[in-house]
Amino acid sequence: MINILKKLSTLLAGLALIFGSVDAKKYENAETKKALIVYFSHTRNTKLIAERAQKELTAANYQVDLQRIEPTKNYPEYGDKLRNLALKEANDDNCRPKFKSMNINAQNYDLILIGTPVWWYKAPKVVLSFMEKQDFSGKKVRFFITHAGGPGTCISDMKSACKAANFGKNIDIYCNSPGNGKVDYNETISWIKKIKEEMED
Predict the structure, then answer these.
(1) What 8-state DSSP symbol labels residue 119?
(2) Class of domain 32-200
(3) C-beta of residue 96 within 8 angstroms of C-beta of residue 129
(4) DSSP 3-state of 115
(5) Which of 47, 112, 142, 149 places its Cα 20 to 30 Å from the Cα of 38?
(6) Which of 27, 13, 24, 199 minimizes the C-alpha distance to 109?
(7) Which contacts qualify for 84-90: CB closer than 8 Å, 24 or more apart?
(8) Residue 2 in 3-state DSSP?
(9) 169 with 191: CB under 8 angstroms?
(10) Pair 157, 128: CB distance under 8 Å
């Protein structure tokens, strides 16, 4: 099906150049899908997964925007101070840390991937702060999470903050060390492949 569409796009672009009755650029770009990858990362593991997902989607001819959620007040370095603060936030359902301004409109994308580490078996509250300010209605949204103990309620937390979205296959990746650069990308590559197949149906 994809090959047929490519041939049709090429044919229409050629006719446009010959007869001048069709906008050639319109058809040349007709198959390009727009993807947004937005992530929060504190020890680099989630960042590395986000960058690999960007690489895979770009290779599949997606126009990809990669953006990072950054809290206005930096979290402590990895250690007891961070763990204690993360636990405090996890136990406060009303906690919504502020984040730096992001020029994002979720409605402009065909596919949205949202990534985060798992903190105390939940989604970090700064991620929910971002998600609750966006309109994801009708959008295809997929989640990728990294953890060293288990996914907990992280995915369901994010779904609750992502009203009226079109959900599909998500992925959780075990990372036993913070930011060591030794993330296994095999799961990510397989996940992106399945997402591309979903988008082509």
Answers:
(1) B
(2) alpha beta
(3) yes
(4) strand
(5) 149
(6) 199
(7) 86/119, 86/120, 86/124, 87/120, 89/119, 89/124, 89/125, 90/119, 90/120, 90/121, 90/122, 90/125
(8) helix
(9) yes
(10) yes
0.85 exceeded by pTM: no
119 closest CA partner among 46, 171, 14 = 46
User: Encoding tokens for residue 168?
Assistant: 């599909």
Do residues 165 and 158 lie in contact, with contact meaning Cβ atoms separated by under 8 Å? Answer: no
Rounded CA-CA distance 33/39 in Å is 20
Average pLDDT by consecutive 10-residue portion of the chain (201 residues)?
49 44 43 94 94 97 98 94 96 97 96 97 97 97 95 97 94 82 87 93 77
User: Would you kindly state where each structural domain of the chain is located, as residue ranges?
Assistant: 1-31, 32-200
